[in-house]
UniProtKB/TrEMBL annotation:
<protein>
    <recommendedName>
        <fullName>Malate dehydrogenase</fullName>
    </recommendedName>
</protein>
<dbReference type="Pfam" id="PF11937">
    <property type="entry name" value="DUF3455"/>
</dbReference>
<keyword id="KW-0732">Signal</keyword>
<feature type="signal peptide">
    <location>
        <begin position="1"/>
        <end position="25"/>
    </location>
</feature>
<dbReference type="InterPro" id="IPR021851">
    <property type="entry name" value="DUF3455"/>
</dbReference>
Amino acid sequence: MSTTRPSTLLTLTLLLTTLFSIISASPLASPVQPRNNQSPGANLASYTVPTSDGSSTTLPAPTGTLKAITLGRGTQNYTCAAATSATPSPVPVSIGALADLFDVTCLLNLIPASEGEALIDLLPPYLINFPLSLVNQYSIPVVGHHYFNSAGKPTFDLGSLGFLTAKKTGDIPAPANACPGQGDQGYGAVDWLNLVDAGGSVGLSEVYRVETAGGKQQPACDGFVGNIEVQYAALYWFYH
């Protein structure tokens, strides 16, 4: 009996549907905790982080071994100060980010690497449309957290997989067709980044933020004073 292999698009659609059907399942009795004693199951040797959208600008190439691919979902955070005579039209200033890091490697065992990369690239613009309160209630595997420490350094805690306190070494604009925010509305996708160890890291030495969706702030404060949270999602590729 002959069989017909599904098209790549159909394969990706089915896998996305499978992944996010988890969100519709019954909630856990308590919020899901990071899987600190587990490692991504896929063979990551066949995967290479995208460092450019095909334009002339590119991020530095990774120097280590790929350790994890995660999907970040959270907020980029900004603050607006009151207008003064010196700054009559203040603009939002970044004060960091806060995100959960979800393990997407469970999908990568199911398909060839060439299709796996295309699959995970679709996840940020998909997941940004789910409210954080819903995402955090259901059993999507959480492998770690991203936040800024008291010194203002971007920090990534992946439990037993490693800990990275980082500094930026490269950035390029998100592609022009990147998802600008929830419901394809917003001020744009934050830059793609390359960050390396800023000292004190364990088991991780480099991370790339790519395939970003949303996260950019409004261009001006327009009289607003206070903090602003902008929803975003992105892929984070970790190396050591």
